[in-house]
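hey can u check if this looks right to u? its 116 residues, i copy pasted from the old doc so theres a chance i mangled smth
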Amino acid sequence: ERKAREESANSDPLLANTDDMLRNSDLAGRSANLASAEATDASGIDGALSALSVGGGGADDEHPEKRMKALHRAFEERMMPEMKRDFPGLRKAQYQEKIFQLWKKSPENPMNRPTA
């Protein structure tokens, strides 16, 4: 029986991994889930959310460049009325170009923020 199990494990890496996990763990299946739930103190919504979060969840913004397009769009919407007031009669593309030049130097641009 042991020999047959080892042969099947050699042919299927997933099965080998599963067998290894079951052999090396005292708890498996539902009992492992219950033990994990008891280990976390998740009373209330905040506790449950913090128990479910995978990352650090800190205030550190690790990837601001992923939101750069949305940040630029908000910056553009906020600056457009001011640009129209300061430079009347320009085309939309010209306003956008001026706003983009301001965006490149703006402290709101995540690429201008110092890295920690």
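The chain has a mean pLDDT of 75.
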